[in-house]
Amino acid sequence: MTVHVPVRPATTEPHGRPAGTRLPGPAQRSSPQAGERLRPLTRRQIEDRFAELGNLYAQTSGGGPRAWNVARGAFLRRLAADVRRPGFGLLIAETTVLTGCAYGYPVPGGDPPGVRGLERYLTGSVLPVAASGRLFLVSGIVVPARVRREHHDRAWNLARRLQARLLAEHDAVLGVTLVDRADGATVRALRSWGWRYAEGDTLQSSVLGPYGVLVLGP
User: Fold this and answer.
1) Residues annotated as region Disordered (predicted)?
2) How far apart are CA 108 and CA 133, in angstroms?
């Protein structure tokens, strides 16, 4: 993902399409502890609010109406594909309006080959968690710009609340996301929300691509 505040997606799916780890767009208020209400949507509710989710994404994508339309369409196509994945979950944040969301799906358990293509990106420390069935791929985090700029180290920061609740909803031991090593702004934002490099002190790339692994968990 490239960042120009707002930004495009931060992760890439194992099958080579962009996924939607999203960073901030137009300034909105950061989340106080008793601010946005978080709740999961069922697949039927996601279908009912598809247009609204697309609008939220477009509003954080930057640029003019043409850029919004392109970003919105691409996001909705990715979301429609992800919704069909086993275990997919989407969590929204709302006040009187939709203010953010986070979504993803569990990595299939069993032997490491069951990771369905992700194994080429995952490091040795992550594969055992994948094999246990308690690894969750965070495909996207969509939040306003202020959430990235302010209080990013506080537990009530909206991005932190969304990602923590998403993992808890799916009983995941570890969250994982893929990020372009060259996308420093995205890496910094994720790191400020508690994500860490899967191995060592630097973001390693896969031998098969430019994407590195960040993890979230104990």
Assistant:
1) 1-40
2) 6
pLDDT of residue 175: 95
From 92-101, 103-112, 173-182, the region with the lowest mean pLDDT: 103-112
pLDDT digits (tens, 9 = 90+) for 28-71: 444 455 578 999 999 999 999 999 999 999 887 766 777 788 88
User: How far apart (Å, rounded) are the C-alpha atoms in residues 66 and 68?
Assistant: 5
Question: Which among 8-12, 47-51, 94-98, 149-153 has the top mean pLDDT?
Answer: 47-51
**∠ Cα 91 141 63 (to 5°):** 125
Q: Which residues lie across from 100 on neighbouring strands?
A: 93
Q: Compute CA 148 distance to the chain's CA centroid, rounded to the nearest angstrom.
A: 14
Per residue in 97-134, is it b (16+ CB within 10 Å) or e — as a string? ebbbbbbbbbbbeeeeeebeebbebbbeebbebbbebb
Number of alpha helices (DSSP H) and beta strands (DSSP E) in the chain = 7, 9
Of 217, 203, 208, 207, nearest to 10 by C-alpha is 203
The DSSP secondary-structure symbol of 191 reads: H
Which residues are CB-neighbours of 91 under 8 A, at least 6 positions away? 38, 39, 40, 41, 101, 102, 103, 162, 165, 166, 169
Which DSSP category does 67 fall into? H
Residues 6+ away with beta carbon under 8 Å from 7: 1, 22, 23, 24, 25, 60, 61, 62, 185, 186
